[in-house]
Design a protein that fits this description.
This protein is 36% helix and 19% strand. By secondary structure, it is of the alpha/beta class. Helix 3 runs parallel beside helix 4 (110-117). The protein starts with a strand and ends with a helix. 39% of the residues are buried. The model has no long low-confidence stretch (mean pLDDT 91). Pfam families: CoA_binding_2 (PF13380). InterPro entries: CoA-bd, NAD(P)-bd_dom_sf. Residues 15-107 form the CoA-binding domain.
């Protein structure tokens, strides 16, 4: 599903088939969605890697940068950043070989969506939330 976006079940299942999940915008502030998404992955038994430019540790996990993450082709990337930063994140992710991106609600705008449409990545944008999908058990369908 190259260069394809969506919010349907196939895109969600494909994303959750990843071996690990990078959370760009992870925060040590438990009230922020970057922290909530990171915790949701770990609470559901999934491997999560916090990514933040300034933090060093979030929820007891060492923060990494995208360029430090091994096996990008098998890593889903959840993006919880303001749209102004998201454009840079998706460009960097694609250059590094990450192919599955999930923009959480509010991380996208028209420019970001236009850029995504021209890239060779699978992505979810425009509404679906990883927190809702995990709570529904969508991640279990990917491993059936």
């Amino acid at each position: 599903m190259s260069g394809a976006g969506g919010s349907g079940g196939d895109a969600v299942t494909s994303f959750f088939a990843s071996k690990q999940f990078a959370v760009v915008g992870a925060s040590s502030n438990r009230a922020k969605y970057g922290n909530k998404v990171l915790r949701a992955y770990t609470e559901h038994g999934l491997t999560a890697i916090p990514v933040h430019p300034k933090e060093t540790e979030v929820e007891g996990l060492a923060v990494q940068q995208l360029e430090d993450i091994e096996d990008p082709a098998n890593t889903g990337v959840s993006i919880i950043t303001p749209p102004g930063a998201t454009g840079e994140v998706i460009e960097k992710a694609a250059k590094l070989g990450f192919t599955k991106l999930w923009l959480q609600p509010g991380a996208e705008n028209k420019d970001v969506l236009d850029k995504l449409a021209s890239m060779d990545v699978e992505y979810l944008a425009g509404g679906p939330c990883v927190l809702v999908s995990l709570a529904r058990g969508d991640h279990k369908k990917a491993n059936m």
